[in-house]
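Researcher: Sequence of CBS domain-containing protein follows. Predict its structure.
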Amino acid sequence: MTTAKDIMHPGAHWITKSDTLQHAAKLMRELDVGALPVGDESNRERLSGIITDRDIVLKCVAQGLDPSECRAADIIEGTPRWIDADADIQDVLHEMESHRIRRLPVIENKRMVGMISEADLARNLPDDQVAEFAGHIYASAGSRR
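Model: Prediction complete. Tokens:
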């Protein structure tokens, strides 16, 4: 059985809710990632949300706001989704497809141990499963534009 831990990108660099979007964007560039987990101030490893490069553009820059003034807390929304490290790959796909998310934190013993992205799925799944996943994720994307 292939598990979430088998295909995830291990480790994650966190930011806090008080970090600026400019800091987040610089960190994304340095780490060559498109998303960062956001933690609470009191417990940095308590997942409060995820911020993506797209979030920064659409919820800050496109609104005419200053990324050096906006905080991660200003743009994270909803309940963060995650998956247990021992979850089967089918559970990973179901979680990502049903919530139409492209990145999924992996949790083990109440700690985030990695992240699964579309690229991780593409590297580890047969082409037909990747195509089916993409169909679920992107099928409704046009209706949101």
